[in-house]
Amino acid sequence: MNSLKVARMALRAAARPQPALRRGYADVAPDKLRLSLALPHQTIYKSQDVVQVNIAAESGEMGILAQHVPSIEQLKPGLVEVIEEAGGNKQFFLSGGFATVQPGSVLSINAVEGYPLEDFSAENVRNQISEAQKIAGGSGSEQDKAEANIELEVLESLQAALK
Amino acid sequence: MAFAWKAAGITYNRYLAVAARVVRRSLKDDKRLQAERRGEMDLRFAKWEGGKQGENKSLADANQADMAAHAGQSQ
To answer: Which molecular function term from Gene Ontology is one that the record holds (chain B) (predicted)?
Structure first.
């Protein structure tokens, strides 16, 4: 009966599904970064091998390559640049979020809103800046002024990126 | 790291929402209409006590009232 128990345990172990995060034989190539860039409503990159990602973190601008030390960075509203394997360079303006570098060259960026620069309208940005400046310098509540300041911070970053 | 919005009582959640709203409004008009719909939230909640449902409140209003009350207390 012992052999039956061993066989049953072996079958159970073999049938246990591998958790999706544990990589098996197909590991990330040692010189590539595996990037996942996701918004709540859209996935821009899903575990794609890239060469380098430049992010705007609160602690400063960072370039992340393969074998980067694991870290968690809060993002400023700003530009994220992805340098892909095929040599293409893509830029996205993200409204804010977090970038997590995990051991084994895995980078996950989560943001609330993100668009390529072509999707923005410089005129809409200008109009919003003047509106936000009015509110920030006005006589509204502290909440409104603080929100207007947040908007100004984002808009100035966006305006600089659009130039 | 001291953030100006935190000192004014804005929560990180609200900060993200404000930044996202601004980005959506800065888009070119065709993409903007689709994106603006994502920003709409009309969530209501009610506290239950002793099996009785309390009054139905809007989450946005309740959050704003809470933030105004706590402004300057954080830090």
So the answer is: proton-transporting ATP synthase activity, rotational mechanism
| Inter-chain touch A143–B71, beta carbons under 8 Å | yes
Give dist(CA B32, CA B19) in Å, integer.
Answer: 15
CB–CB of B5 and A120 under 8 A? no
pLDDT (tens digit, 9 = 90+) per residue, A71-125?
A: 999 999 999 999 999 889 999 999 999 999 999 999 999 999 999 999 999 999 9
Q: Does this complex have an ipTM over 0.90?
A: no
Chain A (10-39) residues lying within 8 Å, Cβ to Cβ, of chain B: none
